[in-house]
Every structure is written in C-alpha cells, then in structure tokens.
C-alpha cells in the first residue's frame, strides 16, 4: 500500500472546478499539481492561489509523471474523449457527471479502466451525505413500512444559462436528464434498488424551442417515482423537494443536496424510539395522542397500533458545507481504493453507468 500523495490534475477550471479544488486541497493523500485546458484569466488567477501550474494542454498534463489522477470538469460532450485519453495515459479519472453522453462511450471508458486497473468514476457524491445514509436506514428498517411512492421536484434556476450556453444543446450536454438527472436516479436506486424508466416527456420553451422542462416516471422495485426538472426560475427562487411515501407516513427532504429531513408519521413508542435512533439529535413534536380505544389504525388492509402522531425534524445543515464534505468524501474514498484495491467504495464505476442508462432511456422516451 503506497503512502505517497496522489498528484491531481484538473482539466477545465470553471466555477465548480474552483470549488472542487478547494476541497481536494484539504484531502490527505492528495496533492493538487496542475490545471489544463482553461484560458480565462479569472480561472488562471484562481489556480495561482492554489499554486497550480498552468500546463495549457491536456497532452502536457497527461505526460506529467507526478499526476496520478485527473479530475475532468468540462462540459459533458468532452467527458468521453478526455477521460479516454487520461485512461490510456495510465491516470485514474474522476469525471463530473455524467460519465459520458452515450452508453457506448461509457462502456468504452469502463472497459479501458478495468483492463488497466484504473478508477473511472462519475462525481455522484450524493451517497456520501449523512442524510442519504439515514434515509437508507429508514427504508431498510421498515419502521414506516414499505415505500409506496416517491417524487423529486427540481425547480432550478437558469439565470446563468444564456440562450447560447452549451447546457441547452443536447449534442453538448446530453439534455437535462443526462446532464443533471443522473444524481437523482442514483440516489433513488441506492435507497430502493435498481430502477427502470417507464415514461417521459419534455416541454420546449416558447419562442426558442430549447428544452427547459423534463419529467418521467420510473419504477424502483414496486415503487413508482416521479421526477421533474425545470430550469425556469430566478436564482433566488431555486428550490428542490424530494419525498418518499411509506405505508405509515412520509419523509420530505429539501435542496438538491438534502440538508434537512422532515418525517410525518403515527407510531407506537417502540417505533418512535427506532425512528429517533435513525435520526439522532432530531426534534420530535407530538401532534396528537391517542387513548387506548383509538390506537388501532388500518391501511392497505393491514392493522397496526399507534400511540401518537408525530413530526420529526432533523437538525438543519448548511448546503455549501455539506457540498464540500461530499466532494472531499468521494475523493477520499477513491484514493483509499487506489492505495488498497480491497477497499469497498461507496461510489464505483457501476454508479456512473447505471445512472446514465436511466437518463439515456428517459431522454429517448421524452423526445
């Protein structure tokens, strides 16, 4: 097992890459080395703050022996060609989501990575969120019974996405499902099991014809889940809500990186204790108490007892703080695997492929 730090090179240095660099600089076992393929003076000035060498070209970066991992933060249509070049040069790869824009491209990358024993993962960092783990524990515990339905509603802003931005061009972004939806297909798959898209549609913006809203229904196991993504809002009105309906209540998460959970349910004391153990430190408000003759509840032709109806609210967290934690956690996880291939990763190559597969299917059905 090597203890030498892994040199990290960054391809592209836009706003998110700058944020990622701040996080990567704090990860033990990683050392930022250089940037390439960026020419904006603001980006170069920021890179100098991190002491990063501007090597200008991808080829120059990939020839550097002290770069062991390449982080690719360019638009989606460049992911395949750049990740492929990095893998052929013997570099590990973390690529911004999506892994690629077609399944053929993704499969070629993963074949190359397997043949060379290299990492090639998409930056699907959501599974490192402590709230993600708590929802997984809630689903698995059956405290609220089975999951019956889910929704994810993404009312996203488009203030920074001018009419000529690559985001609106399917040839460059893959479309909204591929560019953005992969995160949420992966989250629900982690909670509920493998998913399949059953129907999808889209809305074109009047006057311009750009794809501004997409929606689909997927099924994860027996549970249908409705997804909506609309890039139509002012920045200050950007908001998201995720909800899971169970047999005995529901849980709501806010923000696209969830920062707080609200659970509404009616349970007995044992169930309340089990719920409190999953959401340690949460506030529990009792909305109603039931006397013995009112404790029998029935739903889905099943009977159970509830002593009280409660609302549980987890402690709020700050979105950008959590965001940084997740970016660091993903890199830490991958570096642990690089050092010791027996390490079991939270995110692997399969996550990038599976989430892309669902996104490609949704895109095909919505066209």
How would you describe the overall organization of this protein?
The protein is of the alpha/beta class and 367 residues long. It has helices spanning 15-24, 41-49, 58-62, 79-88, 103-116, 130-141, 170-173, 176-192, 269-278, 319-339, 349-366; strands spanning 6-11, 30-36, 53-54, 69-72, 92-95, 120-122, 147-157, 195-204, 211-220, 223-233, 239-246, 249-254, 260-267, 283-289, 296-299, 302-305, 308-313. The protein contains 11 helices and 17 strands. It has a 9-stranded mixed sheet, with helices on one face. α4 (79-88) links the parallel β4 (69-72) and β5 (92-95). The protein starts with 5 loop residues before the first strand and ends with a helix.
Short structural description:
The chain has 367 residues and is α/β, with parallel strands linked by helices.
């Amino acid at each position: 097992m090597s203890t030498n730090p892994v040199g990290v090179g960054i391809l592209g240095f836009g706003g998110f890459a700058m944020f990622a660099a701040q996080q990567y600089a704090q990860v033990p076992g990683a050392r930022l080395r250089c940037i390439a393929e960026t020419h904006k003076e603001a980006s170069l000035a920021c890179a100098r703050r991190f002491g990063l060498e501007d090597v200008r070209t991808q080829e120059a970066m990939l020839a550097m022996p002290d770069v062991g991992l390449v982080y690719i933060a360019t638009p989606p249509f460049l992911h395949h060609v750049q990740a492929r070049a990095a893998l052929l040069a013997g570099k590990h790869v973390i690529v911004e989501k999506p892994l690629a824009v077609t399944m053929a491209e993704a499969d070629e990358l993963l074949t190359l990575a397997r043949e060379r024993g290299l990492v090639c993962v998409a930056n699907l960092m959501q599974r490192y969120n402590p709230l993600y783990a708590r929802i997984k524990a809630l689903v698995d515990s059956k405290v609220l019974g089975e999951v019956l339905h889910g929704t994810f509603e993404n009312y996203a802003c488009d203030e920074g996405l001018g009419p000529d931005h690559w985001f609106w061009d399917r040839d460059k972004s893959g479309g909204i499902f591929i560019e953005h939806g992969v995160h949420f297909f992966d989250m629900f798959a982690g909670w509920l099991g493998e998913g399949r898209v059953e129907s999808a549609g889209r809305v074109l913006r009047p006057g311009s014809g750009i794809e501004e809203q997409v929606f689909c229904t997927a099924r994860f196991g027996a549970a249908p889940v409705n997804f909506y993504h609309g890039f139509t809002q002012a920045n200050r009105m950007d908001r998201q809500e995720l909800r899971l309906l169970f047999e005995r209540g529901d849980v709501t998460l806010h923000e696209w990186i969830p920062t707080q959970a609200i659970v509404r349910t009616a349970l007995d004391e044992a169930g309340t204790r089990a719920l409190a153990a999953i959401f340690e430190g949460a506030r529990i408000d009792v909305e109603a108490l039931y006397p013995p003759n009112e404790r029998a509840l029935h739903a889905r032709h099943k009977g159970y007892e509830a002593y009280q109806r409660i609302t549980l609210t987890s402690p709020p967290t700050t979105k950008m703080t959590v965001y940084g934690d997740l970016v660091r956690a993903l890199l830490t996880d991958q570096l642990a695997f690089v050092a010791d291939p027996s390490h079991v990763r939270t995110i692997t190559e399969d996550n990038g492929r599976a989430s892309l597969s669902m996104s490609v299917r949704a895109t095909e059905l919505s066209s």
